[in-house]
Amino acid sequence: MIPVLFKTFETSYPIARLTSIQSTGHVPLYIECPSVEALIQACHDYPAHYLIGGGSNTILDPDNKTPIVRLTESSIEKIAPNRLYISAGTPIAKALRQCTDWGLSGLELAAGVPACLGGMVAMNFGCWGNSIAKWVHRVHYLDALNQPAWRSMTDCEFTYRSSWFKQNNRPILGAEFTLTQSDPSLIRTTIAAAVERRRTAQPLRDKTYGSMFLNPPQGSAAQLIDTNQLKGYQIGGAKVSCMHANFMVNVGHASFQDIRALLSFIQGTVQINNHITLEPEVCQAL
Ligand SMILES: Cc1cc2nc3c(=O)[nH]c(=O)nc-3n(C[C@H](O)[C@H](O)[C@H](O)COP(=O)(O)OP(=O)(O)OC[C@H]3O[C@@H](n4cnc5c(N)ncnc54)[C@H](O)[C@@H]3O)c2cc1C
User: Fold this and answer.
1) pLDDT tens for residues 17-74?
2) pTM assigned to the model
3) Domain span at residue 279?
């Protein structure tokens, strides 16, 4: 008999422990994979699933039966003087601590964000004119037969908040990053500056999932929401941040329904007043 390598939680795993918005309720089925082998087994046993990383751009519906799968294995390996392999389940905070110790610069732009490297690569995490694609050398992932495979950076089809892996729903196992050698004290300063820059513009101390909507071709989603005077608008426990109009915060016991209702209200308002369709950036299991 083949041993089961992953751990399953049925109706007992709180959404608050899976997502940074920490909404209410439990997921019907959560599968925790402590290794790549466990993830391969889980993908085989549950072909239709939602892969979650840090849950920092995800909302979960307690009534959706799709199993939620997470790779918790976290490791960082130096494979050349300025190249690292970072596994998908590694939190960016851990990666940054190691990068600082080894004097490797590049990923500091994500300091302060509760994301994991797999989700960041899938989403092509970006800010301030840069995105993670800039440092990706190649990506280790599971192909359609759930076999480990590699994709070079040029085949990753990185676009604004998307990638080949997101478009094709393929699990990322890890990625190689080419970073720049730098002085650890300089990296520490850059990290502190990045966190400070976020702290002054984003509700970093609140329960949030970052941006609600992608910026439309016509301009900034935050500006559109702001000009419709929706900062501070609240439905149940879900509220438009007073600090950043494209951020939603959970100010109490926000439910999935509160979150969806607020997203729909904002989309409707902007559609009616500005004739612009806002597309969600935040992800959810289908
Ligand atoms: C305070 C705050 C600030 C933020 N600032 C920014 C910002 O400046 N720029 C920005 O781009 N985003 C920002 N975000 C949003 C979020 O951090 C990013 O989208 C991040 O890339 C998501 O990573 P995650 O691991 O949390 O992904 P999750 O939310 O877990 O998942 C997001 C998507 O990635 C997929 N995914 C997750 N793991 C994997 C994997 N191993 N393989 C394949 N697919 C996977 C999921 O299925 C889903 O489609 C912010 C969020 C917060 C809370």
Assistant:
1) 999 999 999 999 999 999 999 999 999 999 999 999 999 999 999 999 999 999 999 9
2) 0.97
3) 203-284
Question: Would you say residue 93 lies in a domain?
Answer: yes
131 touches ligand 1 (CB under 6 Å): no
Tens digit of each residue's pLDDT (9 = 90 or more) over 211-268 = 999 999 999 999 999 999 999 999 999 999 999 999 999 999 999 999 999 999 999 9
pLDDT at 63: 96
What CATH number is attached to the domain comprising 178? 3.30.465.10
124 within ligand 1 shell (Cβ under 6 A): no
One domain, residues 190 and 119: yes
What is the model's pLDDT at position 285? 87
Picking from 143, 176, 199, the residue at the C-terminal end of a domain is: 199
DSSP 124-160: T-EETTEEGGGGEEEEEEE-TTS-EEEEEGGGS--BT
Determine if residue 99 is left, alpha or beta; phi over 0 gives left, psi from -120 to 50 gives alpha, anything else beta.
alpha
Is 23 domain-assigned?
yes
Per-residue model confidence (pLDDT) at position 129: 92
Please check whether residues 81 and 194 belong to one and the same domain: yes
Q: DSSP alpha helices (H): ranges in 85-213?
A: 92-102, 117-123, 164-167, 184-201
What the block records as the tokens of 261 is 């209702």
Instruction: Please tell me the distance between residue 231's alpha carbon and the centre of ligand 1 in angstroms.
Output: 23
**Residue type for 230, please?**
L
Which of 199, 232, 262 terminates a domain? The answer is 199
pLDDT of 1 strictly over 80: no
**CA separation for the pair 149, 119 (Å, rounded):** 18
**Mean pLDDT score across all residues of the chain:** 97
Ligand 1 centroid vs 128 CA: distance in angstroms? 16
Domain count, the chain: 3
